[in-house]
Amino acid sequence: MIGYQQALAVCRSDPEAAARLLCEFSRQLDQLKEEVAALKAENVALRRECQSLCKKIRALEEKVALNSHNSSKPPSSDGYQKPAPKSLRKKSDRPSGGQPGHPGKTLAMVEAPDLIEMHRVQCCACCGRSLEDRPPESIERRQVFALPPIRLTITEHQAESKRCSCGHLNQAAFPEGVNAPVQYGPDLEALAVYLNNYQMLPYERTCELLADLFGCPISQGTLANIILQCQDLLKEPVQRIKERIGQAPVAHFDETGSRVEGKCQWLHTACTETATYYAIQPKRGGEALDAIGILPGFRGRAIHDFWRPYLKYGCAHGLCNAHHLRELTFLHDQCQEGWAEEMIDCLLEIKDAVDRAKPTADCLPERDLRAFEARYQHILGQGYAANPLPREPAGAEKKRGRRKKTKPRNLLERLDHHREKVLAFMYDFLVPFDNNLAERAIRMMKVQQKISGMFRSKEGAEAFCHIRSYIATARKNAIGIMEALAGAFSGTPFVPSLT
To answer: Of 32, 135, 213, 305, which has fewest CB within 10 angstroms of its CB?
Structure first.
């Protein structure tokens, strides 16, 4: 490219050369403009790509940071990199261990043991003189608690046949339930179901235990038949459990994935303080909830997480604040959202105020309600100010569907638009703070999956849910599990009342 001084000298000495030089400058200027425009376009594209990559990196970092303390992931997913314990509960002033006045439980001697073994002194350890005829000066007692020999008791029932002088043959009746030449008793059948359904032993290990401890080598096919028989015997009690939950003023709902015949299905639960119901369904949403049949006619308050299909039902709703606390913890720790920590403190302080007021009152004083409502709204305002909706670029094409928002913004809008469901526990003392009752019911189903992996058949999955509903409800009503199962096989199952 020609220099400035050289071009000036040429223009002074040769007008034609100056014209040619001017044309060359114009061509070079146009070329530079094209290069600048290309660089600007490339810069814009690189900026967009950089922003996209930054979003992906942030999303991956957030995904890696998720654990059981700041999300709904189960503790088993934390792996070997378990986070340090970080409970939202305030530390109690009480020391660990048994509290003053606690009765305690320890092994104690009984007054009438089943067997006494006397260990006598035969002779003197010093001089060897016989001491067999000398009475003891004292006796020291020690007791050992041990299992007796375990074996099956086999009862043979014999029914007489007698012919009357009139020629009629009379046959004595066998007891009710004695129907086959050889069969298992109701207590053994109850134990088999107890081990498989309550203690979560797989079929093979249940059969091994019965063989090892009782000398009763039943097959897995026989065990499956016993379980299906138990399911059939429990139709009325389980239907009553379902009706009891449907008439409750407050009920908890939750669901979890479960594999049946190698396919992902959904195990649903509905429960109260005195009843638990389980059902396995191919779907997770409204179609499954309609098929279960509790929520369509439910008129109490349903406690659940923010799963949209629950909200379509016309009953009152309450959202699980344990979920909210975990999500707020994530926003505070990973997204540096200051308002999230304030919201955690606010919710926990409301819970403490409700817990303190419950023994003596039915609701919080109006002044406290207004103060908590104002504080709640103030924190939401801080959150909105820190997370405004992003402006759409001018001239951008409108897309169908909902506008994409950040995690903080989504949680803010949920806490705002559904505040009466979030704070239901503050207005109605019958409403719990969280949905832990249903989550505890679901947790045992996850234990079953860890042990056995999956259900091999749909019938087996339905039988498990049926029997587990009965067992969990009996336990909540202080009925022993073996007692409840033995009653079912004897024809006298535990049937919960509807009141």
So the answer is: 135
